[in-house]
Design a protein that fits this description.
The complex is a heterodimer of chains A (180) and B (154). With 180 residues, chain A is mainly α. Chain A contains seven helices and no strands. In chain A, α6 packs across α7. Chain A is globular. Chain A starts with a helix and ends in a 7-residue tail after the last helix. By secondary structure, chain B is mostly helical. Chain B has one domain. Chain B contains six helices and no strands. The chains are: A mainly alpha (180), B mainly alpha (154). The interface between A and B is large, with 50 and 66 residues.
Chain lengths: 180, 154
């Protein structure tokens, strides 16, 4: 069942996500969004996904927040005297709630964490193969790295090229030939 | 409130000796940790993407402490471009090497030396880290410098 820590983190993530939506001041929304990412990173840790948590903390909470703030300094920040919260579009909120409900409806179909009858474990040709032969065949102890850089190395090469292409694409869009 | 806003927009950078000395002490450790995450990704959580992001975060930290402009001047465009292309090419050549030696793409064992797969993976992770770190810091500097569109320009 869900522990107290997980429940607290989940509540923190939900509250900061809601704050990102309803806060009128853009800077406050960015800060709330950073807090949301940090909470999500800790949630990944409790779900035993440290690789994802590291990325979420560095990219989601760190770099994205900095890039948003940097963009904000280049734009005009509207005065926020009237109210702290932004007016809510209720019909859009209704659609969002319906969509979230449809997604949550599928959650009971997901097997519990560590369930031995889950499809991932009852499929020895795939999961067990990687767990048993990753160290023997590659000599690295982290199965995630073994899959990323050895078994699915070609896909990872594609990912590296995508990051490189993103840098080139931004230079093309802003019509510059230099990063600095 | 609005007065303070306009003031902040005119002076986006405030020199603070507390932040500067903190960053001066912390930055080498963050850089080392980034390299550690990159190298140690084979045996614990982490890897090229995460380590590269941590090193890029260190660059952003330096820019916040010492001002974006001086940091931007200090980071040569050539270095960023060389790191980004070098990372992709390093990955590519490590992958193509086994093809030349008669194996398949990224079949590290063909290299033949001891623990070839492990060192191949480390090399690939370093390449990914170089791409990620340089592209993130490059995007940061490109956005920070600002850009303008001229009407009718395509």
């Amino acid at each position: 069942m869900i522990t107290l820590l997980e429940a607290a983190l989940l509540a923190f993530v939900l509250v900061s996500a809601a704050a990102t939506i309803v806060l009128r001041d853009v800077l406050a929304a960015i800060v709330a969004f950073g807090a949301y990412s940090l909470g999500l990173a800790m949630l990944w840790l409790t779900l035993q996904a440290p690789d994802v948590a590291l990325t979420e903390a560095a990219i989601g909470a760190g770099v994205t927040t900095v890039l948003f703030i940097l963009t904000l300094t280049k734009t005009v920040r509207p005065p926020t005297e009237e109210s702290v919260f932004t007016p809510i579009n209720w019909s859009a909120a209704g659609v969002a709630v319906l969509f979230a409900g449809a997604l949550l409806w599928t959650v009971p179909a997901i097997p519990a964490i560590g369930d031995p009858t889950a499809p991932a474990w009852t499929n020895p040709e795939v999961t067990q193969f990687y767990l048993e032969s990753a160290y023997k065949e590659t000599g690295v102890e982290n199965v995630v790295t073994a899959v990323l850089a050895a078994y699915r190395g070609f896909d990872t090469f594609g990912e590296a090229v995508v990051v490189f292409a993103a840098g080139v694409a931004v230079l093309v869009v802003i019509r510059e030939e230099q990063f600095t | 409130m609005s007065e303070r806003n306009t003031e902040r927009r005119e002076r986006p950078y405030t020199e603070s000796s507390v932040i500067m000395s903190t960053v001066r002490v912390v930055a080498p450790f963050v850089f080392t940790y980034g390299l550690f995450v990159m190298f140690h990704g084979a045996d614990s959580s982490g890897g090229g993407f995460q380590g590269g992001a941590i090193i890029a975060a260190m660059v952003l930290m330096l820019a916040f402490a010492f001002g974006i402009e001086p940091t931007r001047r200090w980071f040569k465009n050539t270095a960023i471009v060389l790191l980004a292309t070098g990372g992709v090419l390093a990955f590519l050549f490590i992958g193509i090497g086994p093809l030349v030696l008669g194996g398949t793409f990224l079949e590290y064992e063909v290299y033949g030396f001891k623990k070839a797969t492990k060192y191949g993976i480390e090399g690939v992770e370093l390449g990914i880290g170089a791409v990620v770190a340089s592209v993130i810091s490059g995007l940061f500097f490109a956005i920070a410098r600002g850009f303008e569109f001229t009407e009718g320009q395509l």
